[in-house]
Amino acid sequence: MELDSTKDKEKANNEEFKSIFESLLSNNDIIFKSQQRGEMEPSSSEKMLIIEQLFNKNKTNFLLKFGKHLTYGELEHFRQFTKIDKDPEHYEENKIVLNDLQNNLSHGKKMEIKNRRYMALQKLIEEQSYFSEVEMMKRNPLLYDQLVGQYLSEKERQERDFVNNENTTLVKILLESIDRDEMENCRKQQQEQEGQIMDSDEECSNDEDSKNIENNGCPTTSLWGEYETHSKQRPKKNRKLTTITAAERLLLRKEFETTMYQNFLDGKDKEFFDYSTVDTNSSFNNDEEMNHDAEEKYFDSEDVEDTEMKVENGAKTESSEDELDVYMKALNQHQTVCDLAKDIKRNL
């Protein structure tokens, strides 16, 4: 009975690898062998022979040549050859190459999603709906109020709300009223959460101050036998913010917008946006980046060991993809933004 079970497993295993070989055979991106000018391309039977011979001879070399063309699940079938009883001579090399291939595949998938979200971001910004001022205000009312809203004049607020109320109907007015209530509740919740964090930080600071007083042996102001009832908490300041310039207002608005853009890219808008419409949608692929990747695959298939070009191009691609990150870091480090952020925190 156990013998039959073992045979069934071996048969299933062989079928899996046969399926993998056939998928490699149908892949037009693979160069099976170097060809001289004018030489005919190998036939299907010759290609299959190359695949099978390399597989039977050395699993490490097989993975080095064909691994980049396999899916994560297909690569996992080679996990058995990372055990000493399955491949005593090369099991360690198999493990290293297999892990490297799967890690690169996972990284590639993450980069693909990142690229698609960036393309979707550009489209949404151009459409001026999801990233309109009013819609962004609804999604993060507290941040909007801190960076933009509190600096608007009454006329500017009216103009903002008027744009959102053009061509209104009774139903739309009711929906807008509901949205405003929800936005106000959201703002209060965010403010409470932020207040709790600040209170926690202040308690820690007060505890440290108390310890310092005890350690320094400072005399108490109360008489013997009396409890010291006066509060040691520092009074909160209710100083109004100073008037800011038009340039500072613009800078704060830019900071708000870039924060909202980054939230979208980081997947923090799940409550408002269905990311599956982008992450699995090939129409958001960057064709220029895909062509660049295809060229890399072509040259890599000619020489497996030549990885320097791949690393260099990968660094260039990553730097070009992170333009928004670089801009945000520079914006957040701007002295005016830092000063205003401190000013805002003092008044909360």
TrEMBL record:
Domain CCD97-like C-terminal: 115-302
InterPro entries named among the record's database cross-references: CCD97-like_C, Ccdc97-like
Amino acid composition bias (Polar residues), ranges on this chain: 213-223
Spans annotated as Disordered: 188-223
Pfam families: CCD97-like_C
PANTHER family associated with the record: COILED-COIL DOMAIN-CONTAINING PROTEIN 97
Protein name: CCD97-like C-terminal domain-containing protein
Species of the source: Rhynchophorus ferrugineus (Red palm weevil)
